[in-house]
Amino acid sequence: MADLNKLTIADARDAMRKGDLTSAELTEACLTEIEGAGALGAFVHNTPDLARAQAKAADERIKAGDAPDMCGIPLGIKDLFCTKGVASQAGSRILEGFVPEYESTVSQNLLDNGTVMLGKLNMDEFAMGSSNETSVYGNAVNPWKIDDRKLTPGGSSGGSASAVAANLCLAATGTDTGGSIRQPAAFTGITGIKPTYGRCSRWGVVAFASSLDQAGPMTKSVRDAAIMLEAMCGHDPKDSTSADLPVPNFEAMLTGDIKGKKIGIPKEYRMDGMPDEIEALWSTGADMLRDAGAEIVDISLPHTKYALPAYYVIAPAEASSNLARYDGVRYGHRAKLAAGDGITEMYEKTRAEGFGDEVQRRVMVGTYVLSAGFYDAYYNRARKVRALIKKDFDDVFAQGIDAILTPATPSAAFGLGEMENADPVKMYLNDVFTVTVNLAGLPGISVPAGLDAQGLPLGLQLIGRPWEEGDLLNIAHEVEARAGFVAKPQKWW
Amino acid sequence: MSIDIETARKVAHLARIKVEEDRLPELAENFNAILGFIEQLNEVDVSGVEPMTSVTPMRLKRREDVVTDGNMPEKILANAPDAREGFFAVPKVVE
Description:
The structure holds 2 protein chains of 2 kinds. By secondary structure, chain A is of the alpha/beta class. Chain A is built from 15 helices and 11 strands. An 11-stranded mixed β-sheet of chain A has the order 1-3-2-4-6-5-10-11-9-7-8, with helices on both faces. Chain B contains 3 helices and 2 strands; from the N terminus they run H-H-H-E-E.
């Protein structure tokens, strides 16, 4: 078999079951690709020895029979996941040298399923960013290229998106607090799903905004997303918000039958100044679903406009609290102190040296909105608006809507460095279509659906009812089948 | 609400992040851009709305109040920048 690294999870699984392929061969093909792809900046800590040992064990397990679907599949793991004995830095200088003594529940679930870890993937620092430019490791680069410029793979799961789109691994883990799986998936022409809040355990995943953070798979197809999501999910007593619900066989729910499904088109997502191409893609997506037998319904989500401002109160507030743990005492970086410096100077210097500009900014905004005198005006008001945003969704689901179709991003991938001097708020607008989903705790998926005039991928987002990832994946699978997106980036790296 | 340099200095200290004097004006400007964006929330009628505490309507799990983990000081201290005799070491706290 040629180009093993280009296989999907489903095809690799089937080939390994038939004995046509071993995990060792597959893993070796990926390791070779990774070695030649330094220019993408996707992998930041490589674990080839570990990968080879895991592949060997997976091959024995497959030979013994009855191995799980994910057994032997080589993956990249976002740097936000704590991995035992392997550097886990969340893309930050403040966690330089941190080697966890434990494994995150999600990555442990994957290991229990027999997956192979090729290494850790680049990301925006503490998952705060939409372009992977806030990473201490430097930029991850989009494998898609249309001129001399290097494009962003999106963020914060930029390394994951770049690695999957460039076939350096079969799939990768991502995390999504405001769009960090779906936006990079859209920018790189891959599939990414953020499940319902509580589906994936947050234990051992470096916390950004705990009420919004969810892990999910980033894959080459909707089927792969279904297979991998099932392996990542499950109740975990170590995360008090983890849902104690059975995890369905998501792949078995890809029936191809979506007749009679009601798909909502929210009018508030038609933003001023939205590029025509995005608008056109969106209506093409609606046509595809209609052709597949779904009913397209115009809906209203009246508080959509307030989602981003609410998010930029709630997420920094939670971040300022979560990131208080980086104090230079228990792990990671501690600043060199001058004579006479006390513990306050140690905290202040350590955090100034360890956190990048965007993280510092968000921690301070969060500190401000939580400070005495402003808590009600900002934080409590934002939480009330969040309740209204969730109610908007509850209302349309109560009307019988099964899923909601929107664009995934307001544009295709932009050039690295192009937003450098822009107001921080401009970067935040990348998440305008995705952030509502985190605020409401819903599952959302980005599916590649077309190319823009320049030849860059664009994605459509589907938003589902809580805990209905199976139904959502089935609808997404129809969009995927009908869009027939097969374009791949030309190798330049 | 406009943030002045004095407020920016105070917030930086509350967040325990050292910001050099010459960077405070830029920081205040950034805060003002972000807070200006957040001000939109004042347009929303939130009367009678409870602030959201949990996005999924579920009761958090309870468990017996017993020790479930522990006895691993070496592992806990393994990543400390400075650990001595089984403890985290920090600069002198009390004069």
